[in-house]
Amino acid sequence: MTINIDAPYKSRIREALSDSGTRKAVDRAMGELAQRRERAVNAIDNETMRTESHEIREHAIRNLPGLLVELETNLTRNGCEVHWARTGNEANDILKTIARTRKIKTAIKSKSMVTEEIHLNTSLEEIGVKVVETDLGEYILQLADEPPSHIVAPVIHKGAEDISELLQNELGMEPTLDPSIMCDAARKELRKHFLSADMGISGCNFAIAETGTICIITNEGNGRMVSSLPPVYVVIAGIEKVVPRVEDAILLWQAATRNATGQDASVYFSMTSGPKKPNHADGPKEVHVILVDNARTNVIKKGYADALMCIRCGACMDVCPVYREIGGHAYGKTAYPGPIGSILTPLMNENINIGKDLPFASSLCGACKDACPVKIDLPKLLLELRNDLSKEKITSPFQRFLVKCFAWISKKPSRYKKATKIAGLTRKFSKESTQVFSKLPGPLNRWTRSRALQKPSNKTFKETWKDSKADFQVLKSPPSQK
Amino acid sequence: MNQSKTDTKEMNIRVGLFVSCIVDVLYPQVGLAAARLLADQGVEVVFPENQTCCGQPTFNAGHQKESYTLAANFLDIFAPLLERRDISAIVIPSGSCAAMIKHSYATLIEKYPSEKQARQYAIVSENTYEFSEYLVDILGVELSPRDSLYERLTYHPCCHLMRDLQIDRQPRQLLEAITNNNLLPLTEAETCCGFGGLFSLWNDEISVEMGLRKAKHLKASGADLVVVNDVGCMTHLNGILIKQGHTCRAVHIAELLEESETK
Asked: What residue ranges do the domains of chain A occupy?
C-alpha cells in the first residue's frame, strides 16, 4: 500500500501510521542503516571530517556566483555544453529540445533527486521519449509507479515480499525472496536498455569548478554506464552542487558515502570532464550540463542558505525519530523528505501551503544536527521557518491564538499567578480520584486520547515556597553532618 | 547527600532557582526537592517570585517576538541578581529550559538587538546550570556507591540536556551511585521520547507513536523507574505508561535523589 502523497498533511500522517507493513519495512531498514552509518563514521575522525566538509560547503554557498562562472568556463573548455535553467520547467524544456533535435527514443537514467524535484521523467515522456531508471531501487519504483520515499534508499518503504511480487508480475521472475535472483532479473532487463539507449541522464553529486568535472556517486555501476555508453550524456545539477577543488569533492565523497550507506567508499565514483576525445576508447559524443536554480536562490534570499550546504546523504532522515515512524511518503509531494526536506519543501515550493506543516513535524530532538556531515543546524532552521510561517500567518489561526494567549499570560507575573491558580482549580472539577486526567475536552483531548495527563498540583510551587520558606532559611546555616 | 569535594558549606554560596512553568503548576515537589538538595549542600536558594516562563514553548511554536518578551522578563529578573552578586548561579531543574536560556536567547538577542539585553544575556548564559550539572560540576557532589537502593532504575537522557547542553555524565554519575553501579541499560536510550513541547499536541499521533516505542524499550529494560531531567518528557512518558497499563514510571532526578536520602 502506498499513501496518497497529494492528500492533506494530517491524513497522510494518519495513513502512514496505520500502514503497519510499510512501517515495519521502514523501521527495520532504518535501524540497519543507522547501525551501518554509526560504524562507518566512528571508524574515522568524524568530527574533523564534519568540520572540513562544513567549511567546504559553506565557502561554496557563500561564493556561488564566482564558482559557477568558473565551473561554466572549465566545463565549456572541456567541450561540455552548459545550459542555465531558472526553473524546473526551463530545465525540462532545455532537455526536451536536446532530445528532440537528436531524435532520442530512449534515455537511461541514474538515480537523481533533482530530476525527481523537477519531474523530468513525466516531461520527457510527454514528447515520446522512454525513460528507464537504472538504479535498482528507482527501477523497482518505476515498475510500481511510486515515488521514492528516501533520498538514498528510495525503495526503503517496500519489503522483500512486495518487491518479489512486483518483479514476478512485471518481469516474469520466478517466485523468490533471494535478493541476488531479484537483482539478476532486473539486471537482465536493464542490460538491454544500457546497450540500446541513445541518451544518458544523471544528476550530480559534486561539480568541480577548477577542472570542470561532474562527479556522481553510485554503487551499482549503472551511473558509469549512463555517463559513458549512450552518445548523448545530460547532467542535471542544482546550482548548489559546485565545489572549488578536486580535493573538496574527494572529501565530500567520503562524507556522503559513510553517512549515506555506511560504506567506507562507494563502489563507483564517476568523474566526467567532457565528451570523448579522439584518443579515448569510449565515452559520450556530447555532454550537456543543465545548471538548475529552481528556487535555490530564493532559499538564499529568504535567509536559509545553510540548507543548500546539504550533500544529500540522508543521514538526517536515518536518525530522525519522526521519519522512522511515518516514513518518507508522509512528507507529501516532494523529492526531499525528513528534516532537510521539511526545510527545503516549503521554501522551494511556489505555493508555501504545500509544505507549511512540515517544519512543525519535528520534536526538535537535534539528532539530525548531530548526524549532519556538513553541520547544518537543522533544528535552528526549522525554528526560523516556524517563525516565518507564523509571522506570515500561514500557521493555523487557532495555533497562533493559543500561543499568543500563553505569552500574554506569562508576560505579567500577576496574570500568570492568576492563571496558574485557575489551572489548579481544574483539579477540583475533575471527578476522577486519581492524580491524572484520563479524558479532557476540546483541544486537550489531543493529549488525553492516548495519554493520561498529570493534574495540576493543589498548590503551585510559588505558593508552596511561600509556606515553606521558613524551612529553607534554617538550612542557610550548615546542616549538622548526617 | 553528604559528600562533596569542596566544602561548600563554608563558602556561603547563593543561587537563584528557576523552576519552570510546568514544575510550578504540575510538580511543585520537583522544585522543592531541588531546593532542598541544594540547601543540603549548604547552598542558599533564592527564588525570585516574579518568574514565569522562560519562553521555550512560544519559541518552539515559532513566535519569536512573544518569546523575546518573556526572555526580556527573565533577564530583567535574574541578570541584576548576578550582576550585584546576590547570586552566583541560576539553577534550573530542566534541561530544555536551561538550553533555551543559554542558547536560544542568543537568537532572540540577535533579532531584537539591545545593548542592555546583550550584557544581561552574557552574564546569564555563562552562569546558568541545569540542576544535576550544578550538583556535580560546580558543587563537586560525589556520591559513593551505596548498597543498592534502587535495583530497577534506568535513565532516559532528555534531548536538550544531552545534545544541546551536552550533559550526560553528571546525572549518570549520581544515578550510578544510588544504584551501586547497577543503572539498567535502556535500548535506544538516546532516541527522543516524542514529547517535543507543542509537537505533542499539534502532532499528537506521531508524538504518541514515539512514546510507545520508548515505553516498549522501558518495559524490556526491566526498570520500574526511569529517571529524566525534564518534567515535560516526564509528563508525556507517564501519560503513555499509565494509559498503556505499564507499571514503570518516569521520575525527575531531583525528586529521586531527595527520596534516596531518606531510603
From this structure: 9-297, 414-474
Element (H, E) at B36: helix B28-40
Check if the beta carbon of residue A138 is closer than 8 Å to that of residue A148: yes
Helix, strand or coil, per DSSP, at residue B226: strand
Alpha-carbon distances of B49 from A220, A457, A464, B255, rounded to whole Å: 65, 18, 12, 22
**Domain boundary residue among B138, B161, B188?**
B138
Question: Given this model, what pLDDT does residue A432 score?
Answer: 79
Is A406–B57 a contact, with Cβ atoms under 8 angstroms apart?
Answer: yes
| A387 touches B: beta carbon within 8 Å | yes
At A140, the pLDDT band (50, 70, 90 cuts) reads very high
Residues B105 and B160 in one domain: no
CA distance A124 to chain B (A): 38
Are residue B95 and residue B178 in the same domain, yes or no? no
Residue B39 and residue B119 in one domain:
yes
The mean pLDDT of A404-424, rounded to a whole number, is 95
Q: What is the pLDDT of residue A475?
A: 47
Choose one of B109, B138, B167: the last residue of a domain. Answer: B138
Nine cell digits for residue A320:
530522525
Q: Is the pLDDT of residue B148 over 70?
A: no
Q: What percentage of chain A has pLDDT greater than the value 70? A: 97
Distance CA A232, CA A103 (A): 11
Which member of A389, A416, A472 has the closest CB to residue B52?
A416
What is the dotted CATH code of the domain comprising A9-297?
A: 3.40.50.10420
| Alpha-carbon gap, residue B148 to A65, rounded angstroms | 65
| Cα A280 to Cα A283, A285, A364, B30, B112, distances in angstroms | 7, 11, 52, 75, 61
Q: Which residues of B touch A432 (CB under 8 A)?
A: none
Burial of B168 (0-12, 13-18, 19+ CB in 10 A): middle
Residue A354: per-residue pLDDT: 85
> Helix, strand, or coil here: B236?
helix
For B152-199, the pLDDT digits (tens) are: 999 999 999 999 999 999 999 999 999 988 999 999 999 999 999 999
> Does A445 contact B at CB distance below 8 Å?
no
